[in-house]
Amino acid sequence: MTDSARTPTEATPPQPQHPTSQHAATQPSTTQPSATQPPPTQRAATQPSVTQRAATQPSPPHPPHPPAPQPAPRSARAHSFNAAAAQYAANRPTYPPPLFDAVEALAGRPLARSRVADVGAGTGIATALLPARGADVVAVEPGDGMAAQFRRAHPGIPLVRGTGDDLPLATASLDFVTYAQAWHWTDPARSIPEALRVLRPGGALALWWNTDALDVPWIAEAAERTARHFGIDVSAEKRNVNAHAADPAGRLDFTRRTVRWSRRVPVDTHLANIGSHSVFLVHGQEHTAAFLATEREHLLRTFPDGWVEEVYEVILLLARTPTA
Length: 324
Prior knowledge:
- By secondary structure, the protein is of the alpha/beta class.
- Helices cover about 40% and strands about 20% of the residues.
- Helix 7 links the parallel strand 1 and strand 2.
- The two termini are about 40 Å apart.
């Protein structure tokens, strides 16, 4: 599944609940019988009984299956991570070294000694890997919960609060702007001009997502179960990770690379990982818990030793800015 931690991908307060008014039910009626109305016994005699009415009125049709859940609003999903920041940090996958090799190759410059802003940084899973490549990094994160988790885990990396649609960064100050699991929470009509503003000539905008390898049978089957339970199309979300979706106006020339990798984790880590995605976080706890309990049974039939082989394809989109 593609999802971000933030933002920018991507706790949203639950949707407002509108209490049903009980005023009419608790207030005594003030209507008095009129002088022209027959007494109650006469009215009862001239009106059909409840059982008579029921017999003459057709029963409403019953749907054969409950309706599929409606997708949660995008804003709710974008902010849902803040309440689950610790779960996100502990269980989400990292990114493999070949990803950063591809970033450098497509950008035509090393990350070492480059000034980088990682936007929608979340808990810092990707951000922390950039200094290891020698980059000078600043993180940008809008969410309270994610920012607090980031500061606890990475006190040595500067963090500023903001979004990709309005970057709190100086013009022409960066060599790279990166988004890990976060670009899909931005508005490209705003975030692309902002990235171009803060990048130096010859800089690079790099977007990437860990996506499920849907050619692996057990992963494809799990995606189908998720779609049925939550009313989303996981494969469609992956198909939408492309240059046109990232830049509908076609202002940038994105190059795409895919890096395949895997990790082996306990079943509990895998369940906590998928449970940290926004589609799970915005549904009620009971609805999500029921799915995860059933999913555990499926997983243990596939992985009886209790260790899950998660297989990912990191999709990278990178565009360079003009050199002059």
